[in-house]
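Try this one yourself first.
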């Protein structure tokens, strides 16, 4: 049973993400402003994480220099506040299924940005390097298919539901615009993933680092919502799906999932976690079809297949390269040991 724990935990993580896309979309469909939603989500996450970080990690707290604080502030601004707000706008223009599907582009976009920033090297002559490039192209092809081609309905669960009715009223132009906005949100999130590694070298406590970013993001999101939503009556939270979505995203997604993902990565590595990303799409498709009445079209199936295939091609290339690097290091160690023994 112990050997099954990582599999059960990673399935739980993807289920949490699948429900997150659904709840966020329902809250937006019920009239909640996307900027207001992000502010309350980040404020809730900060209220939960900051005390936990202070209680359990205060002994590890390091003095934050002005330079490190500025880096944290900019990471929070573009990588969390920017990404979540852009993503929220894109989700309001499209569907929860597309939101879940677009998350499959994150590993490919992260790798592409790492290459552009010269943090990772592509060996085009090697099979693994070629696979990474092909995977990125296939992922982007899947996103384009989702955006420009819907095709005939393959499966639907029609029922009289106000949320489903509103969800089906997206025009073609709105859908395409929303897809590109989601892609921009993913680019910002991928940039945050790439750059935070550098900051963590200067401030290695992950929990304190995450809590600080959530706190900064909550403040930044407050100013964003002031700039874009002047009707303060829309800031009110009632006992409805909006409050549920805020609490779920702020507490469950940001706090609990952070710990679960860290545990899975420690047990099985980042590739193992990324391999299960398509599961959130499958869960979301099923929930959206039954609860929101979203139809499964030929375009969405083709787009999803391309996105998932592209993801696995990129992961295969990275895994192959990592394996080759380990073998190379083992050979170097063997040579050094044999040289040392000869000297002795």
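Now uncover the answer:
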């Amino acid at each position: 049973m112990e050997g099954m724990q990582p599999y059960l935990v990673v399935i739980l993580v993807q289920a949490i993400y699948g429900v997150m896309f659904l709840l966020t979309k329902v809250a937006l469909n019920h009239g909640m402003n996307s900027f207001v939603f992000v502010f309350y989500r980040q404020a809730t996450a900060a209220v939960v994480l900051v005390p936990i970080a202070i209680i359990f990690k205060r002994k590890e707290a390091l003095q934050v220099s002005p330079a490190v604080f500025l880096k944290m502030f900019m990471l929070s601004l573009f990588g969390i506040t920017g990404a979540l707000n852009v993503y929220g706008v894109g989700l309001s223009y499209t569907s929860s299924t597309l939101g879940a599907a677009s998350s499959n582009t994150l590993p490919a976009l992260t790798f592409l940005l790492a290459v552009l920033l010269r943090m990772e090297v592509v060996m085009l002559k090697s099979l693994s390097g070629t696979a990474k490039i092909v995977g990125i192209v296939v992922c982007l092809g899947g996103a384009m298919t989702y955006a420009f081609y819907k095709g005939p309905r393959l499966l639907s669960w029609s029922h009289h539901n106000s949320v489903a009715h509103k969800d089906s009223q997206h025009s073609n132009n709105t859908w395409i615009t929303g897809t590109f906005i989601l892609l921009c949100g993913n680019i910002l999130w991928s940039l945050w993933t790439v750059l935070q590694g550098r900051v963590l070298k200067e401030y290695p406590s992950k929990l304190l680092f995450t809590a600080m970013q959530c706190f900064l993001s909550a403040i930044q999101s407050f100013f964003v919502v002031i700039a874009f939503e002047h009707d303060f009556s829309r800031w009110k939270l009632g006992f409805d799906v909006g409050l549920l979505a805020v609490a779920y995203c702020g507490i469950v997604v940001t706090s609990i999932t952070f710990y679960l993902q860290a545990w899975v990565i420690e047990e099985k590595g980042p590739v193992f976690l990324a391999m299960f990303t398509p599961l959130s799409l499958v869960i979301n498709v099923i929930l959206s079809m039954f609860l929101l009445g979203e139809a499964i079209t030929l375009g969405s199936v083709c787009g999803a297949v391309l996105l998932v295939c592209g993801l696995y091609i990129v992961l295969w290339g990275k895994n192959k390269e990592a394996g080759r690097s380990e073998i190379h290091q083992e050979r170097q160690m063997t040579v050094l040991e044999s040289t040392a023994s000869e000297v002795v």
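Discussion: Strands lie at 153-155, 296-297. The first helix runs from residue 5 to 29.
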